[in-house]
Write a structure and sequence with these properties.
By secondary structure, the chain is mainly alpha-helical. The chain is built from nine helices and no strands. It folds into two domains: about 1-120; about 120-274, no CATH class. The longest helix is centred in the middle third of the chain and has 35 residues, at about 125-160.
């Protein structure tokens, strides 16, 4: 990472940290203006992070500079970009109080990576792998958004059921908006994850033949796909929505996030670069 790339990354980290603090404070003081300001600050972090990743890519020969720090930064960039894009339509600024801390978590994790050395196995360095990774990351970022909307739905629903609307309830997005965000996150996240997994499977079948099925990360990805597919089916075909779907989205996301960390740090996998 060059000096310019590092400075851009640091600026992105400062912006994400400031926006996280701003979003959380907006919940405490119940000021939507503070949430709006935090959204603009997060946009700055998104731009700085994008510039950093573009410079890294422009200075790379193939995948020579694309290691764990870049992948974690890409996760942070994808989550922030999808959330900011959603703001154009929904204006649910305060949802950032649940999204921004997760973005900051990925930034902190990226800082913990001491080297940007290439960790992607040489046989995997192809356009299908790039497509697989980008779509899978975007799909998982949408699942983050669905879980954040689900968590805020539970809080708002609890306030209304206990007849405590007050200032907090009026400050939070409506149950209808949160439910629609949850559905959009599940739907488009599943679509992108599906296409990304197909691209990865096609490439893996050429590189590993039939050995790729046994990789722990691939087993985890298939399990994730099946569970989120089930949730989406129950929502669209059976009619599950509201509190039930909000709670399930949160529980499933937490379980799979924890299992992903366990696989990354405790089980041997060729996906150790991400």
């Amino acid at each position: 990472m060059t000096e310019v790339e590092l400075k851009l990354f640091v600026l992105a980290g400062i912006c994400v940290t400031a926006s996280t603090i701003g979003y959380l404070l907006s919940l405490v003081v119940k000021k939507v203006q503070l949430a709006r300001l935090s959204t603009w600050i997060l946009l700055g972090g998104f731009v700085f992070l994008a510039l950093s990743l573009i410079l890294i890519a422009s200075h790379s020969t193939g995948w020579s500079n694309f290691g764990s720090r870049c992948f974690l930064s890409l996760y942070a960039w994808a989550i922030s970009g999808i959330y900011l894009g959603m703001q154009i339509k929904t204006k649910t600024r305060v949802l950032g109080a649940f999204v921004a801390p997760l973005i900051l978590l990925f930034i902190i994790a990226a800082v913990g990576q001491q080297s940007d050395k290439n960790l992607v196995p040489l046989p995997w360095q192809g356009w299908l792998t790039a497509l697989h990774l980008l779509l899978a990351i975007a799909g998982e970022a949408l699942f983050v958004l669905a879980a954040a909307a689900g968590a805020m739905f539970i809080i708002q629903d609890n306030l209304l059921k206990h007849k405590k609307p007050g200032k907090m309830s009026r400050f939070l997005p409506s149950l209808g908006d949160l439910d629609r965000i949850n559905q959009s996150g599940l739907l488009w996240g599943f679509v992108l994850l599906t296409v990304g997994m197909i691209a990865g499977a096609l490439y893996a079948s050429f590189v590993w033949e039939d050995r790729w099925f046994s990789d722990p990360k691939i087993i985890w990805a298939l399990a994730t796909w099946v569970v989120y597919g089930f949730l989406l089916h129950q929502r669209l075909a059976i009619g599950w929505k509201g509190f039930r779907m909000a709670a399930l989205s949160c529980v499933v996301f937490v379980l799979f996030f924890i299992s992903a960390l366990a696989i990354r740090f405790y089980l041997p996998t060729i996906h150790s670069f991400i």
